[in-house]
Amino acid sequence: MEILTAAASEAQQRRVAGALRARGLRPGDRVAVCTPSSAAMLSCILGALRTGIVPVVLNPSLLDHERRALLDDADPQLVIDDALLETLLEGPAVDLAPHPLARPMHYTSGTTGRPKGVWSGLLEEAEARQLVDEERELWHFEPSDRHLVCSPFHHSVAIRFGGGTLLAGGELIVLGRFEAEAALRAIERFRPTTTFMVPAHLQRLFSAGDVPDLSCFRLLAHAGAPCPEPLKLAAIDAFGVDTVWEFYGSTEGQFTACSSQEWLDRRGTVGRARPGRRLSIDDGGVVWCEVPRHARWEYWRDPARTALAWKGGAFTVGDLGRLDRDGYLYLDGRRDDLIISGGVNVYPVEVEQVLAQAPGVEQIAVFGVADERWGQRVCAAVVGDVDPGALSRFARSRLAAYKCPKQYLVVDELPYTASGKLRRSTLAASLGLEPEPPAGAAGATGATATPPAASRPAP
Question: For the chain, what percentages of helix, strand and coil (3-state, to nearest 5) are there?
Fold first, then answer.
């Protein structure tokens, strides 16, 4: 656990920026950040951003070949590991822009299993200010804030809330790795005022034992996965109705924000469009969000995928939903086949492509099952002469731990449609792991190809 003040981070940011400049990096260049979550990691990210250098932030739990594939795609000028980060922190201090001049680049895989980098390019000075002001005005970041960081900094949301707090003059309590007992001790000792948690964090927090007085919090924001109603009500009861907020967004961009009172009045909503945005639903039920210029992005060196994601000034990530007459959004389905386990995206196709190489596997289908702790747990149905234990060991040798199925079921056959498409959405119910879905439940739909509208083309 670390405490990071705005002043200490500012000094670290200035030295990291100076070290990067001394190495010849310039605005628009990319640096890959491959370190465990820490206070110094966030200072490194912010120091780079405030000189226009774009951090490509990678999950440190990726295996070597998984990381190499992303590095080959991102083509960074520099790869920052633990040892290099320590060296950069000793660099010569330089002046910084008042606001980050870019957004970090994160990878998201979608349903194809092939990662896509979300690239926003360099921001004009006015856009950079608007990006910071938007977050500050929505969440009311201020110098008196003490933010409890529960998510790792390879998640975009942790950078947004942690960076927003530091830029407003507040300080951070950085857990590094979320453990419920450590979070409870931090709350009791340091009395944080704000935090962000995924539902899995909340579930573990309430299951860990006696929860201390939570009246120190003015904001608990949650997102990253659907929050079960009993857990949502427990959070509202524990933190207070004026404290708990939900938002809906993705690596690509942010859509909505929702107070607890709005949610209580309209059970199941994820709120209305954030200021400066407009939501719409197309004929296929796909959610689109029109955003201001400072929130534009594109998929790194992938104009075809970018074209699918944009329609004029609005983008989609393929989620399905509906709007009521007052503009409140209700999600009817996540992206096709996506599993959200502990707030982390797991893409079945990527896992299947690896497990299909295991000895004895004839067919395999990876799917999510509702889970009280994780939101969803990753499961696999397998056809073939396989031993689940051996298959589990095979997976762990080739996939990061969060992608590995927690349960394997050997079956005689997998369900397919007449056209040969796997009925993935029915697997959990057909195997007795979940109740049968209601008739007419929404399925995933793809967006229609449209001309690209990202405002900053990738190199």
Answer: 30, 25, 45
- Closest residue by Cα to residue 292 from 130, 137, 450: 130
Tell me: do 329 and 401 sit in the same domain.
Answer: no
Pair 313, 352 in one domain? no
- Expressed as residue numbers, the domain containing 389 is 341-430
Neighbouring residues of 68: CB distance < 8 A, sequence distance ≥ 6: none
Q: What is the pTM of this model?
A: 0.81
427: tokens are 């697997």
Classify residue 452: in a domain, yes or no.
no
By the 8 A CB rule, do 344 and 402 touch? Answer: yes
- Terminal-residue alpha carbon distance, the chain: 39
Report the C-alpha gap between 359 and 446 in whole angstroms: 34
Closest CA to 59 of 86, 78, 25, 32: 32
The pLDDT tens digits of the residues spanning 3-61 come to 999 999 999 999 999 999 999 999 999 999 999 999 999 999 999 999 999 999 999 99
CA distance 67 to 115: 11
Beta-strand ranges (E) seen in 58-137 are: 78-80, 106-108, 116-119
pLDDT digits (tens, 9 = 90+) for 223-257: 987 787 888 999 999 999 999 999 999 999 999 99
Residue 223 sits at the vertex; the CA angle it makes with 109 and 448, to the nearest 5 degrees, is 45
**Residue 200 tokens, joined:** 């899995």
Which tokens belong to 374? 């994780």
If asked whether residues 13 and 60 sit together in one domain, one would say yes
